[in-house]
Design brief:
Blueprint (H helix, E strand, L loop, with lengths): L2 H15 L8 H13 L6 H8 L3 H12 L9 H16 L6 E5 L5 H13 L6 E6 L2 H9 L1 E2 L9 H7 E3 L5 E3 L1 H4 L2 E5 L11 E6 L8 H14 E9 L8 H4 L2 E4 L2 E3 L10
The protein binds S-adenosylmethionine.
């Protein structure tokens, strides 16, 4: 598995899926893929790839491995407590209908968590929750909305009862009223155009393998996608080092605000 083989593999992957490994941390990604290939009979990245593309399920499993989509409802409950008690009420002071984006939404636990919060805070009000991910298979799972006990373990018991129905095989199906406001789409954060005019963007546990350059571009693009006064919520280990340079103010740790007085077209 030499460098030339790696380059050819990256080209093939990019052409087939739009995933450009140039924009991910090389060492970590390569190590991750090596670990996977070592468990197969293949001796090169390209022979592994050529075999995987022949089988739809095998290829989907490979993309799932590559994109790492572990998630759960109310992941880091203390942070969602801040979202519920502070961030959303703050945003609702200026707009009674919010435009929210869960970027890198994986199995849908994050956008559905927001849908639950919005329903409780503003019963009967309509909000939009856009939920996007690179991985089309995981979006399928998100739309089905069926979860294991583990994926909802951080939730309060009353919420579990209120917002899920038990399936015959012991899983938990999210109720249609929570699904309804969420609009799922495939979207590559490193390649595709961004919608704009968001009050709140969540991008958590997505950028771990992105290069520093790719992250800098991403956070600047999020800035432009926010309304003035809008807030970006990032993961617990993902503080934005150059946040001030981009133009953000810190609303609280891990919550970055586009200043209210920044003009919509700025930066
Ligand atoms: C670990 S999950 C995070 C899910 C959720 N945000 C959370 O914190 O629980 C990371 C997700 O990011 C997605 N992802 C990785 N690279 C991406 C990209 N370039 N564009 C969009 N999504 C991406 C993966 O497919 C995966 O579903």
């Amino acid at each position: 598995m030499d460098d030339k083989d790696w380059e050819v593999f990256k080209g093939k992957l990019n052409r087939k899926t739009g995933i450009d490994l140039q924009l991910y941390k090389e060492q970590q990604m390569r190590r991750r893929i090596n670990n996977l290939i070592q468990k197969t009979p293949f001796k090169s990245y390209t022979s592994f790839f050529d075999d995987a593309v022949k089988d739809k399920q095998k290829f989907a499993d490979f993309i799932e491995y590559l994109t790492i989509n572990v998630s759960e409802f109310f992941r880091n409950p203390d942070k969602f407590d801040q979202v519920e008690k502070d961030v959303i009420p703050y945003l609702l002071k200026r707009n009674d209908s919010l435009n929210i984006w869960s970027a890198g939404c994986s199995i849908g636990a994050e956008p559905y968590t927001l849908s639950i919060i919005m329903k409780e805070l503003t019963p009967g009000k309509r909000h939009r929750i856009l939920a996007t991910d690179l991985d089309i298979e995981i979006i399928g799972k998100a739309k089905r909305g069926i979860y294991t006990a583990d994926e909802i373990r951080a939730m309060r018991p009353d919420r579990k009862t209120k917002y899920f129905t038990k399936t015959p095989d012991g899983k938990f199906a999210i109720k249609p009223e929570i699904k309804m406001p969420v609009d799922f789409k495939r979207h590559n954060l490193l390649k595709d155009r961004f919608e704009t005019n968001f009050d709140l963007i969540l991008c958590r546990n997505v950028v771990i393998y992105f290069t520093e350059e790719a992250k800098a571009v991403l956070y600047a693009n999020f800035f432009k996608a926010l309304k003035p006064g809008g807030i970006l919520f990032v993961g617990g280990t993902e503080s934005i080092l150059n946040s001030r340079q981009i133009g953000y103010e810190t609303y609280k740790p891990f919550f970055y605000q586009r200043p209210l007085n920044s003009s919509p077209g700025s930066r």
